[in-house]
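Researcher: Structure for this, please.
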Amino acid sequence: MDSDPEFPAEEPANLKFLRRLVTTLTATMIVGLVVMITLVVIRLNGATPQLALPDYLTLPDGTRATAFTQTPNWYAVVTDDDKILIFNRDSGELTQEISVNSRP
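Model: Predicted structure, C-alpha cell format:
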C-alpha cells in the first residue's frame, strides 16, 4: 500500500460527519454559554424593581419604598431614608413612623 504524504487518504464519510457534528455542537455550547453569562450580567446590573404597594396606600412625598410587610391589622413600609411607616390596614392611614438609625 503506497501512501503519498502530499496526498493523504480520503476520510470516510462517517468520520467527516462526526467531525462536523462535534464542531457544531461545540460552537452551539459556546454561544449558549456566552448568552447565559450575558443574561446573568444584565440581570444583576439592572435597576432595583419598583415595589408594588396596595393602591390605597399613599407614601409621603419624596419617599420610596424598599420593603413591605403586612399583618391582619397593619401594613409596614420601609423607605429608602431609613424609616418604617406603619399604616392601618382598614383605613390605610399612617399611624406610626419609626426612624431607624442604621449607622452605629
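Researcher: Any notable elements?
Model: Strands lie at 65-70, 74-79, 83-88, 94-99. Helices lie at 13-45.
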